[in-house]
From TrEMBL:
Protein's recorded name: DUF3626 domain-containing protein
Highest rank taxon of the organism: Eukaryota
Length: 374
């Protein structure tokens, strides 16, 4: 444990049961996972003993990233960064009413159903003697991030936000993981101390596709070396000035159980540099780091000429939307965020493009375009 880390309080029984249920699933997956790992290591000429160092690097040095868009409006009327600055706590979508994936915050909705299935009913009272009504406490539900094993400069899951917190490795001990997004009910799950099923899936992807987690032309040996390298380097801004991965779809999803306190759990914040060009979001992000005691790094950033927006990646409406939201002919995350705020404040001016929900979805897709082509 790092010297500056504070110990989190014990998990609520629902949360502890969720972690235990995933660990039990991972234990059941272990024999097949070890067989896969052994085969791939043999075919890749990797000593099986290397895996001990890899497991240790993941447990002690891998960080979960929480992606977010700081300038988006929240239910409180504040922007996300304003709410974070005021509360000092990273909240889940059941609490905030916003999401950069699918927004489904009601009991019996899609997210609730996914969590019931993934955690074997732990958050619905199946493991402890409480009612389902008491079980639906929004603050108890997990927060979603992605495990950062390869330090892509734009983070492990840029699809879900232009900025990201890097959490202290200690947070992983109360987290669960899936290889891929949990909405797809992936079969490979794990905890930081029972990780072999996810490691097997990662190595299999490298072995069969020569790519994984946004890293191209990587074989199993190279991926294992990247992971082992986590133990040999500290967080420095130079790491985040590299070209972005533009990885929209491939991640190890992390579900964090228990509170995420900025002062206790965040080790660094990586942001899109466009927030320092105009508006006050950049200064609020700086204040966030100063208030809660973590460094702020800027990554390479995303910017695109509106006229170069493709119409064959996220649909034919993207070029006209890019032209509409552009600032001085360019699209960046600030331009998209300003349009989101304008839409929420005055839906009528966007009515020609559809309902609020439809336009929000369009703007979300434009962010995907910017990540891939900006």
């Amino acid at each position: 444990m790092s010297s500056s880390a504070q110990i989190a309080p014990p998990l609520h029984p629902f949360q502890a049961a969720a972690v235990a249920n995933i660990k039990a699933q991972a234990v059941a997956l272990r024999p097949d996972a070890l067989e896969t790992i052994s085969h791939i290591c043999r075919m890749s000429n990797v000593p099986i003993e290397t895996l001990d160092d890899v497991r240790q690097a993941i447990a002690q040095h891998a960080r979960i990233a929480l992606h977010f868009h700081p300038d988006r409006p929240s239910l409180s009327g504040h922007t996300v960064v304003e709410a974070l600055l005021e509360d000092g706590r990273y909240k889940n979508q059941f609490e905030t009413g916003i999401s950069n994936g699918l927004l489904a915050t009601q009991l019996g909705g899609l997210r609730d159903d996914w969590e019931r299935s993934l955690f074997s009913g732990a958050y619905h009272g199946s493991s402890v003697p409480e009612t389902a009504e008491n079980a639906f406490n929004p603050a108890l539900r997990p927060k979603y991030g992605a495990l950062d094993l390869v330090r892509n400069s734009d983070g492990p899951a840029p699809r879900f936000g232009s900025c990201y917190f890097l959490l202290r490795p200690e947070v992983s001990s109360r987290s669960t993981f899936t290889y891929g997004g949990s909405q797809a009910a992936p079969k490979d799950v794990g905890t930081v101390d029972e990780f072999d099923a996810i490691l097997a899936a990662l190595l299999e992807e490298c072995f069969t596709r020569d790519t994984a987690l946004g890293v191209n032309n990587v074989r199993p040996r190279g991926m294992l070396e990247l992971i082992k390298g986590l133990s040999k380097s500290t967080l420095v801004e130079a790491d985040y000035k590299r070209l972005p991965s533009r990885n929209l779809d491939h991640l190890i999803e992390a579900q964090i159980h228990g509170d995420v306190l900025l002062s206790r759990d965040v080790e660094a914040l990586v942001v899109d540099p466009s927030f320092f060009l105009r508006g006050d979001t950049g200064s609020l992000l700086e204040a966030l780091g100063e208030t809660y005691g973590f460094p702020l790094f800027s990554h390479h950033g995303f910017e695109m000429q509106a006229e170069s927006c493709p119409g064959d990646f996220r649909g034919p409406t993207m070029p006209s939307l890019a032209a509409r939201v552009a600032y001085q002919g360019k699209v960046d995350v600030q331009a998209i965020g300003e349009s989101v705020r304008n839409l929420v404040a005055d839906a009528e001016q966007w009515a020609d493009r559809g309902t609020v929900a439809e336009v929000l979805q369009e703007l979300k897709l434009l962010w995907h375009v910017l990540v891939r082509y900006g």
